[in-house]
Design brief:
185 residues
Length: 185
């Protein structure tokens, strides 16, 4: 089974300027995704994010500006990446706004997909789906089948950063040891 680890990050966050470059415990949000999935591809239109991705050894896929707008659905970004990258068995969608998901949790999702011959594995901030899953869907959750499974993940990893308050809360969790970040060293 081959997995495309796809990091989707745009530069124009409105609520948190330069959100994907924000630091938590000395690591950017992009850095967390790179540490959890070192062989990932970063889809972005932003030169600063490209530079950050290269720093972590990520492959860069330049995203068209039209797919980097406020209301561009992530699914369209993924479909565009699929058109420009070699076919894989499945895609692990990696969003920098959920920095604390560990490589162990991603590996558990992959194992579940293999064991259950699943089409779609999802958690609070985790999305793993077979390559063809989006081809007949508008979004990841269209027409869920009996080959879709929810993966449990530690609550501490389910942080999703959308607002400045979320970012400060994530920094507080990390600084006070409420999140195991030993994998991100």
């Amino acid at each position: 089974m081959t997995i495309l680890n796809l990091i989707v990050a745009r530069g124009g966050s409105k609520r948190i300027p330069k959100k994907n470059l924000q630091m938590i415990n000395g690591l950017s949000l992009i850095g967390y995704k790179a540490k959890a999935s070192p062989k990932a591809v970063l889809s972005t239109e932003d030169s600063r994010l490209m530079q950050e991705g290269r720093f972590y050894g990520l492959e860069i896929l330049i995203r068209p500006e039209a797919l980097a707008q406020d209301h561009t659905p992530t699914e369209l970004v993924v479909k565009s990446a699929m058109e420009n990258l070699p076919r894989h068995t499945a895609i692990m969608l990696l969003e920098p706004s959920s920095p604390f998901v560990s490589s162990k949790t991603y590996e558990a999702a992959i194992e579940m997909m293999i064991e259950k011959d699943a089409d779609f594995i999802f958690g609070h901030v985790l999305y793993l789906f077979k390559w063809d899953w989006l081809k007949t869907r508008q979004d990841l959750y269209d027409n869920l089948t009996d080959k879709c499974y929810y993966v449990d993940m530690p609550t501490s990893e389910a942080v999703d950063i959308d607002t400045p308050h979320d970012l400060e809360h994530a920094r507080w969790l990390a600084a006070n040891g409420y999140v195991d970040l030993s994998w991100a060293k």
